[in-house]
Amino acid sequence: MATDIFLFVIFAIGIHYFLFLEKIRQGLNNLPESTAKQADPIKISVIIPFRNEEQSIGRNITGIINSDWDKELLEVIYVDDASTDGSQAIVSSYLYLPYLRMLIVPEDISPLRRKKTALLKGIESATGEIIVTTDADCWFGPQWLSALLSEFSSDTGFVSGPVAFTQGESLFARFQQLEFAGLVLTGAGLIGSGYPVICNGANIAYRRDLFFQG
User: Fold this and answer.
1) What sign results for the dihedral spanned by CA atoms 139, 144, 145, 151?
2) Best-predicted range by mean pLDDT among 2-6, 155-159, 198-202?
3) For residue 14, what pLDDT is reported?
4) Distance (Å, whole) CA 142 – CA 210
5) Which residue, 137, 81, 85, 136, is CA-closest to 112?
6) How far is Cα 87 from Cα 163, in angstroms, rounded to an integer?
7) Which of 11, 48, 50, 211 has the fewest Cβ atoms surrounding its Cβ within 10 A?
8) d(Cα 73, Cα 76) in Å, to the nearest integer?
9) Cα(135)–Cα(199) distance, rounded to whole angstroms?
10) Domain extents for the chain?
11) For residue 96, what are the CA distances in angstroms to 60, 91, 139?
């Protein structure tokens, strides 16, 4: 009896998993192809929280500097989340750039809320019509922002872009890359299926007014 119940449970889980994968497959097929159109010139705010990222934040800032987005329409807000290394000093050395500034999360914020607070502090301070978020350990090519923003139209409120995990060549790192790619594909498939429940916050853009409407 117990064996029959166990087999039934395994069978039910298998069917559910198969249907879930099929939903993702259909969703990926439903995703519209990129129009590759030129992005409309619009003021954007890029929010980048960071905490102890001195090994990578310099490369992140260089990517921003090399961006092909019109710097007159660009605002970049780095938000320090209690860094104890040289991250804040690195960001400070670039504050001569008129489109770049830094905020600091108050020390009395609970550790469990610091990342969320950092994002909210950045968004509340932003002046751009569209908010873009990424992480301080991410890097990107010159066309990253223009490619992401090109997906917006007059009736678009939110755009989710892909993120790739590329660190390391060990077997463990390769498994991490595979797992990460699976999460990205799952998120994309669910979006295409009409169930947008997951995406990576390191490459998303949305209209600022919609955020506060929620």
Assistant:
1) negative
2) 155-159
3) 81
4) 27
5) 81
6) 23
7) 11
8) 10
9) 14
10) 44-161+199-213, 164-196
11) 16, 10, 21
pTM of the model: 0.84
**For residue 170, pLDDT beyond 70:** no
**By the 8 A CB rule, do 79 and 122 touch?**
yes
CATH architecture of 44-161+199-213: Alpha-Beta Complex (3.90)
Distance of CA 30 to the CA centre of its chain: 22
- The rounded distance, in Å, linking the Cα atoms of 109 and 38 is 41
Residue tagged 């087999």 (tokens): 7
